[in-house]
Hints:
By secondary structure, this protein is an all-alpha fold. It has helices at about 5-30, 35-65. Helix 1 packs antiparallel against helix 2. About 5% of the residues are buried.
Amino acid sequence: MSYDEEELFVETTAQKWTRKIVEPRIAQELQYGNIDEVDRLKELLDEALEDSGEYINHYKRRLGK
Length: 65
């Protein structure tokens, strides 16, 4: 596996795990009616996914995907 392939795998996996961890927490806070915490978590998730998405796109371009 090349460096670029490895980095693409790591970033893709990180996105999946981030969603897997944060999305249930958002759902839980929605059940409790804690909208401020929902908004905060959504903002953090969006930022993390955006940053990670930039890396994913970078390595996909480098790999010609």
